Backbone:
């Protein structure tokens, strides 16, 4: 089995896992819609109350699923400590798994609470979980601004920029009927980006400009009359150049943001896990959760 095939299999399994979780959530929402939309004071009389309430069998299993997903997020941390174990798959795939668990875990916990905000200690844990999920989303956005490899250094980026000068001639030679002007415009979008980012405002402005140019590139390549495969190949190359330049120019502010993110995200995550552990112990030791999960 080749590495590329193994990579595709792992990616497919991760997406199937995500779709499977979405299907469970959709089923629960359809099944419990009447209960979830009933006023809190009237839920005691609802026929699904003894199934869907947080302490009932259905509610408990939703909580177990959500907690398991939140614990599964730690697998990415373990994978980072085992970088030499390549047979486990790329850390990038484990990051995707980490993100999916971080998104779906809170959704299952919310279903576990029957869309009622908990109070007391577990209420603090719940809002820690919400903040962990939100900060994790921001952290993933910041992480996407890091140069992928040492190829993001300025000298390598300059070599790539010089290569774009020859790209137009190569494309026109390969596709004589293509519009050289439209091709040049698309290449210029990637080559002529000259912006620095020394503040968060400039960092955001740079990212928005890169996204605007990235969306315009395929438009100009289509106007050039290039074949579909050529549009895809040239578009990919130009987009990579844009992103590499963005990541290099914003390196200093991105590194600072990531440091600040760690100072915020990790303590919240630790507090969340401690509170959830105490909540689980209380539910199983004093709340009779074991008997309801396995009647």
Residues:
């Amino acid at each position: 089995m080749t590495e590329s095939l193994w990579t595709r299999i792992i990616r497919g399994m991760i997406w199937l896992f995500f779709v499977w979780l979405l299907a469970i959530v959709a089923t629960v929402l359809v099944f419990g819609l009447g209960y979830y939309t009933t006023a809190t004071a009237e839920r005691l009389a609802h026929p699904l109350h003894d199934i869907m309430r947080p302490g009932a069998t259905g509610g408990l299993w939703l909580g177990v699923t959500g907690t398991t997903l939140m614990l599964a997020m730690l697998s990415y941390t373990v994978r980072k400590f085992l970088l030499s174990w390549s047979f486990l798959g790329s850390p990038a795939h484990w990051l995707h798994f980490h993100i999916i668990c971080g998104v779906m875990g809170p959704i299952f916990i919310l279903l576990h609470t029957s869309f009622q905000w908990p109070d007391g200690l577990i209420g603090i844990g719940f809002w820690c979980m919400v903040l962990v999920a939100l900060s994790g989303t921001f952290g993933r956005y910041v992480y996407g601004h890091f140069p992928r490899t040492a190829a993001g250094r300025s000298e390598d980026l300059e070599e790539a920029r010089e290569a774009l000068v020859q790209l137009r001639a190569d494309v026109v030679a390969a596709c004589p009927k293509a519009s050289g002007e439209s091709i040049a415009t698309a290449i210029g979008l990637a080559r002529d980006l000259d912006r620095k980012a020394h503040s968060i405002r400039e960092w955001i402005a740079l990212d928005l400009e890169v996204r605007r140019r990235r969306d315009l590139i395929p438009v100009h390549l289509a106007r050039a009359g290039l074949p579909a495969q050529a549009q895809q190949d040239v578009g990919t190359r130009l987009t990579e150049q844009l992103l590499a330049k963005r990541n290099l120019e914003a390196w200093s502010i991105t590194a600072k943001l990531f440091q600040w993110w760690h100072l915020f995200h990790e303590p919240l995550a630790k507090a969340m896990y401690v509170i959830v552990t105490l909540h689980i112990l209380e539910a199983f030791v004093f709340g009779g959760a074991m008997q309801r999960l396995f009647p």
